[in-house]
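Re: Re: ligand-bound prediction request (bumping)

Still looking for help on this. To restate: I need the protein modeled with calcium ion bound, output as structure tokens. Inputs repeated here so nobody has to scroll up.
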Amino acid sequence: MAVQKKEFAVIGLGRFGGSICRELAQLGMEVMAMDIDEERVNEFANIASHAVIADSTDEMVLKSLGIRNFDHVVVAIGDNIQASILTTLILKELGVENITVKAQNDYHEKVLRKIGADQIVHPERDMGRRIANNIASNSVLDYLELSDEHSIVEIIANRAISGQTLQALNVRARFGLNIVAIKRGREIFVSPGAAEPIQMGDILIVIGADADIDRFEQFLA
Ligand code: ATP
Ligand code: ATP
Ligand code: CA
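Reply:
Sorry for the wait, this slipped through. Here it is.
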């Protein structure tokens, strides 16, 4: 991925925060890893650009680390919701530009939204939904929620549609869906035209309303 070099701070080095920290380092980013737990911090000494033992609910500590100058701060404190909220509040007050926070539950999320977290993530819930959708359906391989009612899904083409063109299937008119790309083995056809015949096993990348996607799935079943 072509990315501009930025400075990040990750607070809380559990599985989630730790994974973000590793990935950012892998992407060549400057990343400061912070945790209150010394052992956790030691694990990141050779991974992050800086690894610091600190309590992020201590405003003076965050100030002295110059937290305001980081492009993006991730708060990945898990079980201690109070610490997560307080940390976010302090980051906000210190003027941090971009704050991403991991929410533990819906109430936590609500509070984070109120105090102005820029991005709230819910990894366990979202991954759970994604996997549920995947295993509940025979045709959906993956999905990305765009809103409460719209998604992008990967649908595998079966006998019901193989050999037919998009025009013959009339996907847009009949289902209100757009096929934005077709993956065939290692190839990918972006914006396929109406004359494109679908082959068995093609992976269709489909965008649309969930209700329309459901109808298309029924059609395939
Ligand atoms: P996982 O991502 O593995 O599910 P979790 O979010 O459940 O982890 P926790 O162990 O609850 O993990 O919290 C993540 C990290 O946040 C821990 O390593 C913990 O030490 C750290 N942490 C908790 N409070 C603070 C704080 N005030 N300042 C800095 N780090 C903290
Ligand atoms: P429309 O009047 O629906 O915009 P169009 O003028 O773009 O269609 P074509 O591009 O020839 O006409 O496509 C004919 C039909 O084939 C479309 O109405 C649509 O149902 C289907 N189709 C073509 N391409 C796609 C696509 N990428 N995704 C979904 N359906 C498609
Ligand atoms: Ca956890």
